[in-house]
What we know:
The protein is of the alpha+beta class. It folds into 4 domains: 2-93, Rossmann fold (3-Layer(aba) Sandwich); 125-179, Dna Ligase, domain 1 (2-Layer Sandwich), CATH 3.30.1490; 190-317, ATP-grasp fold, B domain (D-amino Acid Aminotransferase, Chain A, domain 1, 2-Layer Sandwich); 326-410, Phosphoribosylglycinamide synthetase, C-terminal domain (Glycinamide Ribonucleotide Synthetase, Chain A, domain 4, Alpha-Beta Complex), CATH 3.90.600.10. The chain is built from 13 helices and 22 strands. It is globular, with a radius of gyration of 21 Å. The chain starts with a strand and ends in a 12-residue tail after the last strand. Bound molecules: adenosine monophosphate (AMP) and glycine. Residues 118, 141, 150, 153, 155, 184-187, 191, 213, 270, 281-282 line the site of adenosine monophosphate. The site of glycine has 7 residues, from loops.
Amino acid sequence: MNILILGSGGREHSLAWAIKQNPKCDRLICAPGNAGMDLIADCADLDILDGGAVRDFCVENAVDFVVIGPEAPLAAGVADKLRAAGILCFGPSQAAARLESSKSFTKEICDAAKAPTAAWARFDNADAARAHIRAQGAPIVVKADGLAAGKGVIVAMTEEQALTAIDDMFSGQFGAAGAEVVIEEFMEGEEASFFVLCNGETCLPMGTAQDHKRAYEGDKGPNTGGMGAYSPAPILTDSLQEQVLDRIIRPTLREMARRGTPYQGVLYAGLMIADRQARLVEYNVRFGDPECQVLMMRLGAQVLDLLLACAEDRLDEVRARFADDHALTVVMAAKGYPGAYEKGSEIRGLDDLPSTSSQQVFHAGTKLSDGRLRAVGGRVLNVTARAPSLRKARDLAYEMVDAIDWPEGFCRRDIGWRALGE
Ligand code: AMP
Ligand code: GLY
């Protein structure tokens, strides 16, 4: 079959790498793709937020199946446009994607589903929000309601910080995303991510991972899209996964179906775990990036069968088969990220690295120009390894990092520290 993957990050490169290995995949197209995806697929220049353009492209190129990687096209309704044209597609409708595109919507769903999460209140004016913060005290969490590219959450350790966040959000710093604000109880605990394939009320767990959100070692510095990840997340034991399915995921799916907006795609539950109880921090309606890279490394070719079963509503016929292994990915980013960074620096040494079922470099912001590989984004490479132990996977990944010649890049040297007990 002909398959189109929408997106251009490390997440989409790892999806392409896994899907490409499945014999069902004939032609693989990525839009817009990156230099890494260009090596294994045809890359097409396509506005992936324009559902009509994506649909027309699929018709012209006889695409049988579309996998939507990032949240923006989902929130823009690209999946709806494709399904209306009878094109098989992996990813939720615009209405169901509100589980990521509106924080207050998710909170309403959690309340209706009685799913455990932080106590919350919604405000559309600054005075009432300030009064609420003064009444609750710190620590407290302030969130812009809409999509804010991961920058709309302020975990305020003092009342002062929370009040400043309110000023910033209502002064329009977050654009339309900040017109409404959700203020939440601060939850303590350890965070982990749980990925579940869903169609209507059927669901299939697809693995666990832990991310490293802060830019620098020791979980210091500004928040980023994620600087590294590993899978599995040891804190998400089988029994805790069952608890999350019973108390959070299935009730959410029931409530979405009851409202006439059933969910189809991967549901990424960001969880806070304390005293062996999990509460929901947030939902995302897509795979995590870089969490996807470690899941794909562990699952390989079967990923296509799982995503197809999800899209075709046959989830009860399949299972994710995990080996007893561990995967770890180290993100290499341009110096300055997540703030301002230079574009165009050259990356050398990738051609000499192993490219196997247990060692891969997934590209994010890369481009080939004049035959040279150049960094054109904030997060640029995902150096990924799989091994029987997490320690070995970590060592293999850093061996590859050390062989990459890119003075303008940086990475954290401590990915995996929590699970390795360091
Ligand atoms: P989100 O964009 O909702 O994932 O939030 C970004 C990060 O903020 C999360 O990964 C958590 O580390 C933190 N966070 C969000 N909500 C809370 C909360 N209620 N309590 C504690 N930390 C939170
Ligand atoms: N790595 C976090 C995310 O994808 O949202």
